[in-house]
């Protein structure tokens, strides 16, 4: 949209008008017939539309202070900081930074700079797990919306992550998105006028990818989709054309994305930590959504690399650690270890029986189809028995999913999904059901399967195995569970809060039940809260259970510090758990190392307050199943990761290699001895050796590709100066902390410093308006007193001392509002607009003015026009001597006055007279100087935008900043020399 598209308003953006009994600022999107207005000093929620043809609208000026509205030496600092924190239309080149509730790290601005270089934004953001891809995508979305380059937004994601995405958009970026899920579509359709779509091009939505790809909703979505699309876990939307796993689902998702990408002016952000699963074709198809050339171009050439660098950004943890050396919460290290146990003799005997049964049934199969069915059903039984007695019992009483397959290939596809953890599965969200091991030729009852061809001996054998598995339950015979109890206890005693990851629902519930009993025996001094979360729960129920475990109770009491979460891999992707947990235990070994990375990434990520997180892997020292997985997959993956510093995807040969090794175990003539050193002390099997060679080759390619995929076209240093200036203009961290503590103290919040940093404050005695705002931000059951953290993030129900935290912003808004309105009670006005302070910091009378400038900022659009924006800036200016003959000080000297300490009191009558004389001089010569400074500030603003746009190679034509009206004088403060100093004639 350009300025020529609509009639220009009578009032310029940034000008002041009077309507409805108050003063307003004119905002962008105003037209001749409709003014979009924000109350002076108000928030975005107060924005209103006014029709000049029907309502009286007049030009307005900002009211000067009242001479008698006097404060003390802290007044000026409180007022200035409240004003800066409250800015929602900052002057800096990144328009969204003033209105988002997150303080981005420098490296997180690189994708934003890449986006600003493109007319239509197309990016693949592939940073490591836990370093902030959601923030990076959100920053781009917020900036495009703030600049008007995008009208609406839709996020496509798993339904399990939909609520988290909506909370992130609302809490961090101020974007209120609607959830479009199977559970919400009925209500949304009822709320939508007949004949209209649920979707609007200017709306914001979080949508289930699998739901919207269905034929019923797909076309409506494509016809009305907003112009900015974020795709989370984008790797699940592409699959190898020869893939045997979930190919149909992936192809449907890919078809949806292809249709979205075919609209040439649609912005598309693809987000994934695993863009390359080890297969080249899916990676190329993913890149081809951004630009068709990327599907075929050779990345070995310089031209290919330069093309890729325009659309692809990938950083590893090691690349960005220096950005967290300023106290921001990011773990400095991950302490990993293996924890072994030895099987109980009864468990070992049952495992031997299962292996013998597997060998016999597979060998005696009649034909390829039956052989593959028996292979997968016995492998399922082996894996479930290695997991837990509960999972084994469930498997022995459940029909095998491979039973319904009609061909050996179909059997393999089903078996890989239900038994293995292949790299190209579309999700782990619903993969935690126990796989069945019963087939028509091996059923416990004819009622279950409809088959009666089992002889009594085989039936008795299966029943005996199920009964034997049931008797193993509990820490006496289940030494894996016993070792877990000891490991969890050690972690809890060391102050850690662990997550125990299991493969199956039955195992997770079994483990959680036993941990609750063992860790909370009668007489336990410190009880432990334990909860189990599995795929049986809906996404909303999972979040509610996490909140019950980690949040305050109905009485506002904080969650117990000693807590354990037991979960399946339904929580291994996307869900942020770093605020409440700091250790991971792999109770069951995943048959794909990437799954371990995803699990550990739930706690080893930005926002983690523990410096060293723990990751422990349990395994059976004499369990051949664990031995195979450890040696063929997990240890090789860890060795390569340590050698290269990166996690290399499992090669395509992994599935066939692991199958070959299991075949060697199951079909070998004799049971391997459990007491031997290890399965591979002899010469390695050819398949495993082939996998190792492929993996090492892949690691070398990945290491070499770090320079290939590295984002070197944009350096974070290019924008560091601009970001630092923006942050300084909006209030430094120390300023925000001191302001919040001092303001809450004046408003009867009784802040108390904490040994670990920050402070606590009581909110019940705060003024009603501020108390309501705190409750709205933290929830009615938030812990009391409220904890304020010296950090860019805080747990739920607590406050981060950053300008964009909702509680800090509400405090600043309250302080500014009451300073401008003298009708509030005196105790509710910690900031005042005037003051006369005696201090030893000056030797001559010195006047400080707190000034707000407003600008109309014209930004070039991607269509070649310009778009008007409102920009605001607060400055402190000062002069010595009489107002009629001022000697202006430098910016540094003016700011230093905010630190001046009062050494004596001034007579109120005397002070009022002096302030009145300064205000009178404002109408004469002082305002001329302030107008000149406003013009100078506009030039600085233009230059700042020019530097960033030049670095981003963005459009420059039409870029301009113009002051709007006279600067607003919010505060006038006179500093007089202390009485002990000999006063001159100016006194």
Provide the fold topology.
Blueprint: E1 16-19, E2 22-26, E3 35-39, E4 48-50, E5 58-59, H1 75-85, H2 110-116, E6 122-125, H3 133-147, E7 153-157, H4 159-173, E8 178-180, H5 185-191, E9 204-208, H6 209-212, H7 215-224, E10 228-232, H8 247-261, E11 267-271, H9 280-288, H10 302-309, E12 312-313, H11 317-320, E13 333-341, H12 345-363, H13 368-387, H14 389-396, H15 408-418, H16 446-449, H17 456-471, H18 479-493, E14 498-501, H19 505-519, E15 529-533, H20 539-550, E16 563-567, E17 583-586, H21 593-600, E18 612-620, H22 624-644, H23 654-667, H24 686-709, H25 717-730, H26 733-746, E19 752-753, E20 759-761, H27 768-778, E21 786-789, E22 799-800, H28 806-820, E23 834-839, E24 846-860, E25 866-880, E26 887-888, H29 891-896, E27 902-904, H30 908-951, E28 960-963, E29 968-977
